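Chain X:
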Amino acid sequence: MTSRGTPSRFLQSVLQNGVGRYVCQLKRLSIIFSKNAQSSLGIRGFIEEGVVDYAKYNPSTVVYVSPQPCRIPKIVAEYLNGNVREEIVTGKTSIQISEVLTKLTNQSGLDIIRLRKPFHTDNPSIQGQWHPFTNRPPCIGPIRPQKQDAEQGLSNI
């Protein structure tokens, strides 16, 4: 927490993801719906049309489809870091449910909070930032604009 009252942190990679190969952070996806309820109509359509395609494109994610006597259909996503997200999909179409699954798949499971800086390093340099004149010898003097040829020719006459 900062003095502004909103949680914040530095930018970081989840488990150094991207250093080697990419590892999808979504571990398990549970689709909970009712066989008969009107609110589960969209999720039942998605199960008939798109759940097999989703499972093919995301082989590292386990997909559970569980029909239960419930009034509110939901998608429960479990991530590698232990976080669990629930998305309620009442009254959504199969295309909207596909977009929700894509969003859950691309997330890391961390809470969405304000970033302090857009960059961060685990090994900061104590030498300071480099620029083109860092190692320039001081005896050369300051850098000045070059004189044009016409001015040099007049000064030689």
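Chain Y:
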Amino acid sequence: MDGIPIALSDQNNKKPGVIFVLEKASLEVAKVGKTYQILNSDDHANFLRRNNKNPADYRPDIVHQALLSILDSPLTKAGRLQAVFVKTEKGVLFEVKPHVRVPRTYKRFAGIMLQLLQKLSITAVGKREKLLRVIKNPVTQYLPVNSRKIGFSYSSEKLVKIRNYVDTVNNKADLVFVVGAMAHGKINTDYMDDCIAISGYPMSAARCIARICEALEDKWNLL
């Protein structure tokens, strides 16, 4: 793959923006047979069991669906998304530019992720711009000063209606949403200003992100 295409969006927007941080993404590279692959529970269950690992923990499809949910949203197309950061279970941090067009099929997505983790960056088709790049930790150094950092956990005692919650946030502040991209467990990050639950039921990362985007689109009248 020589690069990936970019999508058009209104990037001249100077209004408050949104950043997503996807924590604990399952993107682990291993040599399976003669090739390196991103491990997943469907294709590598026997390999994982032989190496005393639980196949249920290897779900790279979760971060794939989460990224599609973010990048497909009117929020992103209106230019309000500033950046997406993904941190893997192994602690590798990478940035996804807002105008990336992530492959819609999992197989192609896994190929892009493998290329990124091996080469540390991926450029746009026909350009030198790095659309995906591995960066140094911690993620906090890339977040805007005075941004409000909000984490999400089903186990949080603070259950809120997300539409009402975003209405209470300072209209001039950039918003950082921290969402877990793993199959089980919860995120533990010391940089969050708040940790909320937005449903009384467990939700997938993609569904949680869709709710966040819809609430902000409603707040900012993005149709």
